[in-house]
Amino acid sequence: MEYITHSPEETEALGAKFALSLHPGDVVAFSGDLGAGKTAFTRGVLRGLGYTGRVTSPTFAIANEYHTDRADVAHFDLYRILDSEALFEIGFDEYLDGSKIVLIEWSENAADILPDSYKTVHIQYGTFENDRVVTIDEVKKQ
Ligand code: ADP
Ligand code: MG
């Protein structure tokens, strides 16, 4: 499904709506350029799950964890994680044990160890400055 948003608030609202389809064990792989709105969408997902606190980019922390009534959530930013050794060092694989909702920015850097099934959210810049094209899909390997 493709959506166009016109502000960060609209992208957050889309994330909040998308969150209603998520359950523990779901993995969401984000892709799209720096500043596209991956963290904005994630902020919406956490709002949609009922989290009311601050949601910040985990760029430096690598991972942020949240507890909501609906699920435990791990939010990764793998921008600086460039090989599978580094992934294992941060214990990334352990988060894929099916107990949490796992949201992954720069998921390209974990392509080799993503599970067989996951959702994808691709965000691109649109025609006008604050336009974003958000494409939500699902991958199901055999
Ligand atoms: P990413 O995590 O993809 O690097 P962020 O969510 O951190 O991106 O930042 C997105 C930036 O783009 C923010 O500064 C936000 O205000 C701005 N922005 C402008 N229009 C939009 C939009 N439609 N959706 C999301 N962010 C937008
Ligand atoms: Mg980000």
Automatic annotation (TrEMBL):
<keyword id="KW-0479">Metal-binding</keyword>
<dbReference type="InterPro" id="IPR027417">
    <property type="entry name" value="P-loop_NTPase"/>
</dbReference>
<keyword id="KW-0547">Nucleotide-binding</keyword>
<keyword id="KW-0963">Cytoplasm</keyword>
<protein>
    <recommendedName>
        <fullName>tRNA threonylcarbamoyladenosine biosynthesis protein TsaE</fullName>
    </recommendedName>
</protein>
<keyword id="KW-0460">Magnesium</keyword>
<dbReference type="Pfam" id="PF02367">
    <property type="entry name" value="TsaE"/>
</dbReference>
<dbReference type="InterPro" id="IPR003442">
    <property type="entry name" value="T6A_TsaE"/>
</dbReference>
<keyword id="KW-0067">ATP-binding</keyword>
<comment type="similarity">
    <text>Belongs to the TsaE family.</text>
</comment>
<keyword id="KW-0819">tRNA processing</keyword>
